[in-house]
Amino acid sequence: MGTGDTILLQTIAHGLGSVALALLKDPGMAKFDNTSVLVIDDDVRMLRALNKVLSSEGCLVANASSAAAAVEFLGSAEHYFDLIITDLRMPAIDGMGVLRAVKTTYPDMPVIIITAFGSPGAKAESYQLGASAFLEKPVDTHQLLATIDRVLRPLPS
Questions:
Q1: Cβ contacts of residue 76 below 8 Å, gap of 6+?
Q2: Mean pLDDT confidence for 14-30
Q3: Other C-beta atoms lying within 10 Å of the C-beta of residue 43
Q4: What is the average pLDDT across 73-83?
Q5: What pLDDT shows up at residue 111?
Q6: Sign (positive or negative) of CA dihedral 131, 85, 135, 41
Q7: Are strands 111-115 and 133-136 parallel, antiparallel or unpaired?
Q8: How confident is the model over 38-59, as pLDDT tens digits?
Q9: Looking at residue 73, what is its pLDDT?
Q10: Partner of 111 at 20 to 30 A CA spacing, among 26, 42, 75, 137?
Protein backbone atom coordinates (compact mmCIF):
# COMPACT_ATOMS: atom_id res chain seq x y z
CA MET A 1 0.00 0.00 0.00
CA GLY A 2 2.98 2.26 -0.09
CA THR A 3 3.00 5.38 2.01
CA GLY A 4 -0.79 5.47 2.43
CA ASP A 5 -2.51 6.17 5.70
CA THR A 6 -5.04 3.67 7.03
CA ILE A 7 -7.72 4.64 9.48
CA LEU A 8 -9.81 1.67 10.57
CA LEU A 9 -13.25 2.95 11.41
CA GLN A 10 -15.46 -0.08 11.74
CA THR A 11 -15.73 -3.76 10.94
CA ILE A 12 -19.05 -5.52 10.61
CA ALA A 13 -18.96 -9.31 10.66
CA HIS A 14 -21.65 -11.20 8.81
CA GLY A 15 -21.66 -14.92 8.09
CA LEU A 16 -18.70 -15.79 5.93
CA GLY A 17 -17.22 -12.31 5.62
CA SER A 18 -17.03 -8.78 6.87
CA VAL A 19 -16.88 -5.20 5.74
CA ALA A 20 -13.68 -3.50 6.75
CA LEU A 21 -14.40 0.17 6.59
CA ALA A 22 -10.95 1.63 6.41
CA LEU A 23 -10.07 4.85 4.74
CA LEU A 24 -7.04 3.95 2.67
CA LYS A 25 -5.43 6.96 1.13
CA ASP A 26 -2.14 7.27 -0.64
CA PRO A 27 -1.14 10.95 -0.67
CA GLY A 28 0.19 12.55 -3.80
CA MET A 29 -1.26 13.31 -7.19
CA ALA A 30 -4.79 12.01 -6.92
CA LYS A 31 -7.19 11.75 -9.82
CA PHE A 32 -10.16 10.83 -7.62
CA ASP A 33 -9.25 12.73 -4.46
CA ASN A 34 -11.56 11.79 -1.56
CA THR A 35 -13.91 9.69 -3.72
CA SER A 36 -15.35 7.02 -1.43
CA VAL A 37 -15.52 3.55 -2.96
CA LEU A 38 -16.90 0.29 -1.59
CA VAL A 39 -15.20 -2.73 -3.19
CA ILE A 40 -17.01 -6.07 -2.82
CA ASP A 41 -15.21 -9.28 -3.78
CA ASP A 42 -14.77 -12.64 -2.07
CA ASP A 43 -11.25 -12.89 -3.55
CA VAL A 44 -8.93 -11.20 -1.04
CA ARG A 45 -6.18 -10.80 -3.67
CA MET A 46 -8.58 -8.88 -5.90
CA LEU A 47 -9.61 -6.67 -2.97
CA ARG A 48 -5.95 -5.88 -2.26
CA ALA A 49 -5.19 -5.13 -5.90
CA LEU A 50 -8.19 -2.84 -6.29
CA ASN A 51 -7.38 -1.11 -2.99
CA LYS A 52 -3.85 -0.42 -4.15
CA VAL A 53 -4.96 1.04 -7.47
CA LEU A 54 -7.84 3.07 -6.06
CA SER A 55 -5.98 4.44 -3.04
CA SER A 56 -3.08 5.49 -5.28
CA GLU A 57 -5.61 7.61 -7.17
CA GLY A 58 -6.84 9.28 -3.96
CA CYS A 59 -9.91 7.16 -3.27
CA LEU A 60 -11.12 6.38 0.22
CA VAL A 61 -11.65 2.62 0.00
CA ALA A 62 -13.81 0.26 2.05
CA ASN A 63 -13.57 -3.53 1.56
CA ALA A 64 -16.24 -6.18 1.74
CA SER A 65 -15.25 -9.82 1.37
CA SER A 66 -18.91 -10.85 1.58
CA ALA A 67 -21.79 -9.47 -0.47
CA ALA A 68 -24.18 -10.27 2.39
CA ALA A 69 -22.10 -8.17 4.79
CA ALA A 70 -21.91 -5.35 2.24
CA VAL A 71 -25.68 -5.34 1.70
CA GLU A 72 -26.27 -5.30 5.46
CA PHE A 73 -23.70 -2.52 5.83
CA LEU A 74 -25.28 -0.43 3.07
CA GLY A 75 -28.72 -0.95 4.58
CA SER A 76 -27.59 0.65 7.82
CA ALA A 77 -27.60 4.04 6.01
CA GLU A 78 -24.72 5.21 8.21
CA HIS A 79 -22.30 5.42 5.30
CA TYR A 80 -22.62 6.73 1.78
CA PHE A 81 -20.25 5.92 -1.05
CA ASP A 82 -19.61 7.72 -4.31
CA LEU A 83 -19.13 4.40 -6.12
CA ILE A 84 -19.53 0.67 -5.58
CA ILE A 85 -17.43 -1.92 -7.41
CA THR A 86 -18.65 -5.49 -6.99
CA ASP A 87 -17.70 -8.90 -8.25
CA LEU A 88 -20.46 -10.79 -10.04
CA ARG A 89 -19.96 -14.35 -8.76
CA MET A 90 -19.90 -14.71 -4.99
CA PRO A 91 -21.47 -17.15 -2.54
CA ALA A 92 -24.90 -16.45 -1.01
CA ILE A 93 -25.57 -13.06 -2.63
CA ASP A 94 -24.03 -12.41 -6.03
CA GLY A 95 -23.22 -9.12 -7.73
CA MET A 96 -26.72 -8.89 -9.22
CA GLY A 97 -28.14 -9.18 -5.70
CA VAL A 98 -25.82 -6.40 -4.57
CA LEU A 99 -26.89 -4.29 -7.54
CA ARG A 100 -30.58 -4.81 -6.76
CA ALA A 101 -30.09 -3.92 -3.09
CA VAL A 102 -28.04 -0.82 -3.90
CA LYS A 103 -30.51 0.46 -6.49
CA THR A 104 -33.40 -0.05 -4.08
CA THR A 105 -31.77 2.06 -1.37
CA TYR A 106 -29.59 4.39 -3.46
CA PRO A 107 -31.04 4.55 -7.01
CA ASP A 108 -28.45 7.07 -8.24
CA MET A 109 -25.41 5.26 -6.81
CA PRO A 110 -23.04 4.19 -9.61
CA VAL A 111 -22.21 0.48 -9.54
CA ILE A 112 -19.49 -1.20 -11.60
CA ILE A 113 -19.76 -4.98 -12.00
CA ILE A 114 -16.52 -6.93 -12.49
CA THR A 115 -16.33 -10.60 -13.34
CA ALA A 116 -14.18 -13.39 -14.66
CA PHE A 117 -17.33 -15.13 -15.88
CA GLY A 118 -18.88 -12.56 -18.17
CA SER A 119 -21.51 -13.34 -20.73
CA PRO A 120 -23.66 -11.18 -22.99
CA GLY A 121 -26.69 -12.19 -20.91
CA ALA A 122 -25.09 -11.20 -17.60
CA LYS A 123 -23.90 -7.93 -19.08
CA ALA A 124 -27.36 -7.12 -20.46
CA GLU A 125 -29.02 -8.03 -17.15
CA SER A 126 -26.61 -5.86 -15.17
CA TYR A 127 -27.33 -2.84 -17.37
CA GLN A 128 -31.06 -3.54 -17.17
CA LEU A 129 -30.80 -3.49 -13.35
CA GLY A 130 -28.94 -0.17 -13.42
CA ALA A 131 -25.22 -1.00 -13.51
CA SER A 132 -23.03 1.85 -14.69
CA ALA A 133 -20.42 -0.44 -16.23
CA PHE A 134 -19.54 -4.12 -16.69
CA LEU A 135 -15.85 -5.11 -16.82
CA GLU A 136 -14.27 -8.50 -17.29
CA LYS A 137 -11.35 -9.80 -15.22
CA PRO A 138 -8.50 -9.50 -15.39
CA VAL A 139 -9.36 -5.81 -15.14
CA ASP A 140 -6.86 -3.57 -16.90
CA THR A 141 -5.88 -0.69 -14.59
CA HIS A 142 -6.18 1.95 -17.30
CA GLN A 143 -9.58 0.62 -18.38
CA LEU A 144 -10.77 0.57 -14.76
CA LEU A 145 -9.66 4.16 -14.11
CA ALA A 146 -11.17 5.39 -17.39
CA THR A 147 -14.42 3.62 -16.52
CA ILE A 148 -14.50 5.15 -13.04
CA ASP A 149 -13.81 8.58 -14.55
CA ARG A 150 -16.65 8.12 -17.05
CA VAL A 151 -19.07 6.84 -14.40
CA LEU A 152 -18.32 9.58 -11.89
CA ARG A 153 -18.05 12.43 -14.36
CA PRO A 154 -20.64 11.78 -17.05
CA LEU A 155 -20.77 14.09 -20.05
CA PRO A 156 -23.24 16.97 -19.67
CA SER A 157 -26.50 16.39 -21.48
A1: none
A2: 49
A3: 15
A4: 81
A5: 98
A6: negative
A7: parallel
A8: 999 999 899 999 999 998 898 8
A9: 84
A10: 26
- Show the 3-state SS of 54-98: HHHCCCEEEEECCHHHHHHHHHCCCCCCCEEEEECCCCCCCHHHH
What is the sign of the dihedral through the CA atoms of 138, 23, 147 and 1?
Answer: negative
Cβ neighbors of 150 (< 8 A, separation 6 or more) are 133
Q: How far is it, in rounded angstroms, from Cα 95 to Cα 105?
A: 15
Query: Domain 5-152: which CATH class?
Result: alpha beta
Backbone angles phi, psi at 8, to 5 degrees: -80, 120
Q: Do 66 and 90 form a contact (C-beta atoms < 8 A)?
A: yes
- Alpha-carbon gap, residue 117 to 136, rounded angstroms: 7
* Lowest pLDDT segment from 12-21, 66-75, 93-102, 126-135: 12-21
Averaged over 61-80, what is the pLDDT?
83
